[in-house]
């Protein structure tokens, strides 16, 4: 595996509208300054928080992950593990992987976008309901041409909890990238009172990043096949989550 390296700053690959697409709030100079100034502070706190304690990255068979850095992958996981997955993708960027992230074009997404770019990820601004096709086309192009990998929240943005939509499977099919189930948990951790009961690791927690077996999504997969693949993904994520939780508590190793 490659040794860690300093990640460069990511880029925004498409044009950002002046007005928030969801609230019609204008991107004023003050809002831009606030988002740019808060991003490095939040990222520094995030890095410090995750530096406390042990992080284990392992495949479900117990082996060390050896995914090719110049090949695109769609890492797929549930919204409840979003914070930990962001940590995983940051570690991958430090190893030399090119990452790309789809983030809402709203003003509220500006801060997240700035943090992601500081972490080294390229960003595409778009959503499933507004300018979705153009954003998806930009995302797929970057994955095909540049070998970028992306993490997809399968049950986002608002649930139902642990019910994957078709997005991750379709992105893997269209980008010709392999689909990799990804589970990221910690012990001890807190569960927030959000719709997804978001997981936040406690200080000095043991973080476990457990990767499922990469699989290729057939290009001729029809709508029914995509739905079946999404349900199979949920089943595997549930099994991997149980294994990862046991590992984080120090009770077992993957078999």
The description of the largest β-sheet is: 5 strands, mixed
Assign a percent range to the helix content: 25-40%
Structural class: alpha/beta
Mean pLDDT, all residues: 89
Provide the domain count.
1
Order of SSEs, N→C?
HEEHEHEHEHEEH
- Tell how many strands the DSSP assignment holds: 7
* Spatial strand order of the main sheet: 1-7-6-2-5
Low-confidence runs:
none
User: Can you tell me the CATH class?
Assistant: Alpha Beta
Molecular shape: globular
CATH topology: Glycerol-3-phosphate (1)-acyltransferase
Please state roughly what percent of the residues sit in beta strands, choosing from under 5%, 5-15%, 15-25%, 25-35%, 35-45% or over 45%: 15-25%
* Oligomer type: single chain
Structural write-up:
There is one protein chain. The protein has helices at residues 29-51, 82-95, 108-118, 132-146, 167-175, 223-248, and strands at 55-59, 73-77, 100-103, 122-125, 150-153, 178-191, 199-211. It has 255 residues and is of the alpha/beta class. The chain has a single domain (29-248), classed as Glycerol-3-phosphate (1)-acyltransferase. Strands 1-7-6-2-5 form a five-stranded mixed sheet, with helices on both faces. Strands 3-4 form a two-stranded parallel sheet. A hairpin with a 7-residue loop joins strand 6 and strand 7. The longest helix has 26 residues, at 223-248. It starts with 28 loop residues before the first helix and ends in a 7-residue tail after the last helix. The model has no long low-confidence stretch (mean pLDDT 89).
């Amino acid at each position: 595996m490659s040794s860690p390296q300093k990640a460069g700053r990511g880029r925004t690959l498409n044009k950002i509208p002046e007005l928030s697409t969801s609230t019609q709030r204008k991107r004023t100079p003050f809002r831009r300054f606030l988002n740019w100034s808060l991003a490095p502070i939040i990222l520094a706190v995030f890095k410090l928080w995750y530096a406390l304690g042990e992080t284990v990255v392992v495949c479900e068979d117990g082996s060390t992950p050896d995914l090719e850095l110049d090949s695109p992958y769609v890492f797929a996981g549930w919204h409840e593990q979003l914070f930990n997955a962001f940590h995983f993708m940051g570690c991958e960027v430090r190893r030399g992987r090119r990452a790309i992230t789809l983030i809402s074009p709203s003003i509220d997404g500006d801060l997240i976008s700035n943090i992601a770019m500081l972490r080294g990820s390229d960003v595409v601004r778009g959503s499933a309901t507004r300018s979705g096709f153009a954003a998806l086309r930009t995302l797929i192009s970057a994955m095909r041409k540049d070998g970028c990998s992306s993490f997809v929240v399968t049950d986002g943005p608002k649930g139902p909890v642990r019910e994957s939509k078709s997005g991750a499977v379709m992105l893997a099919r269209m980008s010709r990238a392999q689909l990799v189930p990804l589970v990221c948990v910690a012990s001890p951790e807190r569960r927030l009172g959000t719709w997804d009961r978001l997981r936040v690791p406690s200080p000095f927690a043991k973080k476990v990043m457990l990767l499922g077996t990469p699989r290729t999504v057939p290009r001729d997969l029809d709508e029914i096949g995509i739905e079946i693949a999404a349900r199979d993904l949920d089943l595997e994520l549930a099994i991997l989550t149980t294994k990862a939780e046991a590992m984080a508590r120090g009770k077992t190793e993957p078999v």
